[in-house]
Design goal:
This protein has helices spanning 3-10, 14-22, 41-56, 61-73, 78-98, 108-124, 133-147, 154-173, 181-228; strands at residues 30-31, 37-38. It has 229 residues and is mostly helical.
């Protein structure tokens, strides 16, 4: 299809498509003449992925480009692809938030929390790289909880880790039987980046629902307690 048809079918304006091509987010179309280019279904699928990363997930153009380049350069091994996707997004976000400033040295609390994270990983049996971005993020979150007076260590995290284990199994099951490299790359991004807001929303909904259930149960038991008294 020509770029006009590509724009109409995708719902993305022609200037935006050209901008994505210039920024390396989208591969150029096949040249038919000096000014006419042809686009195919693979362009359409990649454009949907880019729009999801930028429009839905809120990544910057730079971060989205890093993620897209990662998944299309490492299409074979699922384990490696997931790690690279998470690492590209995490590192790019850190650079953008820090600007030109030098990275701060880890605080003592973060170092203590890192030891707790190591203890958690050992007890639950997860094989995770020493430089995993998620490992660092968990240690920082644990350190923050402690600084606010919460009693947080690997034992308090264990029930949550067990729930996360079940979620991870569902995630990886979603990649089974996918032979096409592009589709596998798309699913890897969906599982690692796009699903996170949905999981957070589900947790908040569950908290609200559980709170309402407990409140209702307390109100129903109140007349019985008054009658007994």
């Amino acid at each position: 299809m020509l770029i006009s048809e590509f724009s109409r079918r995708s719902g993305v304006s022609i200037p935006t498509i050209k901008y994505y091509v210039r920024q390396g987010l989208l591969e150029p179309g096949r040249a038919m003449t000096a000014k006419r280019f042809e686009y195919g279904e693979r362009h359409m699928r990649r454009l949907r992925l880019v729009r999801a990363l930028i429009g839905v997930r809120g990544l910057s153009v730079r971060a989205a480009r890093d993620v897209v380049e990662t998944v299309f350069q490492h299409r074979g091994d699922i384990h490696e692809m997931l790690g690279l996707v998470l690492g590209a997004h995490r590192e790019t976000a850190a650079v953008e938030s820090a600007g030109a400033a030098e990275p701060a040295a880890p605080a003592a609390g973060d170092q203590e929390a890192a030891a707790e994270v190591t203890a958690l990983l050992e007890r639950i049996g997860w094989r995770v790289g020493e430089n995993s971005p998620a490992r660092e993020a968990l240690a920082h979150a644990l350190s923050t909880l402690r600084s606010l007076g919460a009693e947080a260590d690997w034992r308090t995290l264990m029930p949550y880790a067990e729930l996360a284990q079940r979620t991870a199994a569902l995630d990886l099951d979603g990649l089974r039987g996918v032979d096409d490299p592009l589709e596998r790359a798309e699913r890897a991004v969906l599982l690692t980046l796009m699903l996170e807001p949905a999981l957070l929303a589900l947790r908040r909904l569950a908290q609200e629902g559980e709170s309402a259930r407990r409140l209702s149960a307390a109100r129903e038991s109140e007349p019985a307690r008054q009658h007994a008294a």
